[in-house]
Write a structure and sequence with these properties.
Elements lengths: L1 H16 L9 E6 L5 E7 L2 E2 L5 E4 L2 E13 L11 E14 L4 E9 L2 E7 L5 E4 L1 E7 L1
Parallel strand pairs: 1-7
Antiparallel strand pairs: 1-4, 2-3, 2-5, 5-6, 6-10, 7-8, 8-9
Length: 137
């Protein structure tokens, strides 16, 4: 009985962690954070987005908002021993999302300043975002 219960729990956890199948009538945006960072989907066109793991949008013009959490190395801060964690929101606009197309949204930093970029399936840069506010976390 316990084995059956354990197997059921594992199956439930596995089902919850998988991404849904992309809708071919929508554009899909994968999120690709850097090492030791986190990147979460927050809003599409200033409306809350339900799943923080990806975006799926109809074709056309959209603004995506992401939350990016990253460490700033002590060498970029001064005489400190620990990294400083920053928690930022970034906005990225793109006017030509296409149905059935997969995109990759990548984030990174230069010192204290975060950046976000949108690439198509051929790794062509499609758009770059801007920070919308940061705080220490």
């Amino acid at each position: 009985m316990r084995t059956l219960l354990a197997l059921g729990a594992c199956a439930l956890l596995a089902a919850c962690s998988t991404l849904p199948d992309p809708d071919p009538s929508q554009a899909w945006v994968d999120l690709a954070p850097g090492d030791a960072t986190s990147l979460h989907a927050v809003q599409v066109d200033e409306r809350d987005w339900a799943d923080e793991r990806y975006f799926e949008v109809p074709p056309g013009n959209h603004e995506l908002t992401v939350r990016y959490r990253f460490p700033v190395a002590p060498s970029n801060i001064g005489a400190v021993d620990e990294p400083l964690w920053r928690d930022c929101q970034l906005n990225l606009s793109f006017k030509d999302f296409n149905a059935g197309q997969r995109y990759s949204l990548q984030a990174g930093t230069i010192g204290f300043r975060p950046w976000v970029k949108l690439y198509d399936e051929q790794r062509k840069l499609m758009s770059q975002g801007e920070p919308a506010g940061c705080q220490h976390s």
